[in-house]
From TrEMBL:
Protein name per Swiss-Prot or TrEMBL: Metal-binding protein
Region feature Disordered, mapped onto this chain: 188-209
Domain of life, per lineage: Bacteria
Stretches assigned to the CHAD domain: 209-497
Residue ranges occupied by any CYTH domain in the UniProt entry: 5-200
Length: 499
């Protein structure tokens, strides 16, 4: 079984490659020599170095206290999650799965061998507790594929102790800088090894002018990258990861629709259909979870004297609380041929985009026109909803307005680098409107569920009183939104004026 460790470290280099005296660092009571260790690691990547492009490292290492397979995923600068699996001859399936969104069906190859002689020191506080581990690594890197030759260097690595205060690393760095030690220019040993042993490349020529197509593709690339990067987190059931991936999927699909004058929709619509499928799969459990939380919270607000029958238990059964079930289902989706084919299609779209004539034009007019067009659709749908009497037709109209509002918000997000403040203002207005209309749609969904639960309870001989009470409260929440909507819309309907 793999286990995960949060790694917070900094890498340094110096001209004399020595380790200065660290006894003067604030909070350090003792510097303990832990001896030497010989480490031998083989790093794996695809031939086109997809993992390294995402600052991910995958290695099989022997020697030291943590021999085994190590997968390091970036969290932020200087912070990575290291996922470890026991030493074996072949890559463990659980680690292979965590990089599948990047590797797809491409073979992982040994790309670099790193052998290091590590001189280790422990920095201890007055209670003898570990503050950080400092090591001086004499590294020999050998290129195994995709390059030539080898490289050697010495670096200093400072790794914070588990649950340590990151501010302590600043104190160590202050002392190191005084001794002439500087931050490493490479994010990892592998990055440096690849850079120093890579085949020489011709310098790229000057870039062309920035076009409407460039801006749209930049946003598409950002959302594609988010979907790929969130894959390991979804597999590990990290909080909010499913929701974040679903949002990136929706942003991407909306962008393909909104900017149909930039990218040929005969090419992008099939990709949009697959994105819709993925968003639906990601939402299967999420939507029910959110609705169950809403109803449970509403039930908690009902006085006990007004709760008749096993309402809470019926809600739990309806929610289908089965720990691990959702994750297992989603992992199946992420491993499916359909999902991997979608990721390949997105890569192909970005590599060879189906650009239309407008894509080559200056961005401001093209992008502003696309956002304005989406906003006009919102305006028309809100106007239609306001003309209808309360009831099912109005509920449907409000829901359609909400979907178009979300699309306009995402179109404006993509437009922000070009349009600046007007786009930012549009995003803010559409987000507020989306939240208001979303509250209405949540009420519609909640009332539908309450009707179902009431029918089940009645058939079982239970009282349906509490379900009716909750239904009435949800009805009132929807009515409140409908009463607020005209004035709210008056406040935002000029949002496109500055575009």
């Amino acid at each position: 079984m793999a286990d995960t460790k949060r790694e917070i470290e900094r890498k340094y280099e110096s001209d004399d490659s020595g380790l200065p005296d660290l006894t003067g660092v604030a909070g350090v009571e003792a510097v303990v020599d832990k001896g030497m260790a010989s480490l031998d690691a083989t790093y794996y990547d695809t031939a086109d170095e997809r993992l390294m492009a995402s600052s991910i490292t995958l290695r099989r290492r022997t020697g030291g206290s943590d021999a085994g397979w190590h997968l390091k995923l970036p969290v932020s600068e200087g912070v990575r999650d290291e996922i470890r699996a026991p030493l074996s001859d072949t890559l463990p399936d659980e680690l292979a799965a965590l990089v599948r969104s990047r590797t797809r069906n491409v073979e992982l190859l040994p790309v670099v061998r790193l052998r290091s002689d590590r001189d280790v020191r422990h920095l201890l506080d007055a209670d003898g507790q570990l503050l950080a581990e400092v090591s001086v690594d004499a590294v020999h890197a050998e290129r195994l594929s995709g390059g030539v030759g080898d490289a050697q260097w010495t670096e200093i690595e400072v790794e914070l102790a588990d649950d340590g205060d990151p501010a302590f690393l600043d104190k160590v760095e202050k002392r190191l800088r005084k001794a002439g030690v500087r931050r490493s220019g490479s994010s990892s040993k592998l990055a440096r090894a690849l850079a120093e042993t890579a085949p020489k490349k011709q310098a790229a020529g000057p870039g062309g002018p920035v076009t409407a197509g460039d801006h749209v593709l930049a946003y598409i690339r950002e959302q594609r990258d988010a979907i790929v990067a969130l894959d390991p987190a979804v597999r590990q059931d990290t909080e909010d990861s499913v929701h974040s991936m679903r949002v990136a999927t929706r942003r991407l699909r909306s962008t393909l629709k909104s900017y149909g004058k930039v990218l040929d929709r005969t090419v992008t619509d099939p990709i949009g259909d697959e994105l819709k499928w993925l968003a639906g799969e990601l939402g299967v459990d999420r939507d029910r979870e959110v609705l169950a939380e809403r109803l449970s919270t509403a039930l908690d607000e009902v006085p006990g004297t007004l709760v008749s029958g096993p309402v809470a238990e019926r809600l739990r059964v309806w929610a289908g609380d089965s720990p691990g079930g959702a994750s297992a289902r989603l992992i199946g989706v992420l491993d499916s041929h359909r999902h991997l084919a979608l990721l390949d299609a997105l890569d192909a779209l970005i590599a060879d985009p189906p650009l239309l004539k407008a894509a080559g034009k200056k961005p401001h007019k093209v992008i502003a026109k696309a956002v304005t067009k989406d906003f006009k659709k919102v305006s028309r749908l809100v106007g239609q909803a306001l003309e209808l009497e309360p009831g099912t037709e109005r509920d449907v109209a409000i829901h359609e307005a909400r979907k178009k509002t979300k699309r306009t918000r995402y179109a404006a997000e993509a437009a922000r680098p070009v349009l600046g403040k007007p786009a930012k203002s549009m995003v803010k207005s559409m987000k507020s409107l989306q939240n208001l209309l979303g509250e209405h749609q949540d009420s519609v969904m909640a009332r539908g569920t309450l009707r179902e639960l009431s029918a089940v309870a009645h058939a079982a001989g239970e009282s349906a009183f509490t379900y009716g009470l909750l239904y009435g409260r949800e009805e009132q929440r929807a009515a409140t939104v409908e009463a607020e909507l005209p004035g709210f819309w008056d406040g935002v309907k000029g949002a496109a004026d500055g575009l």
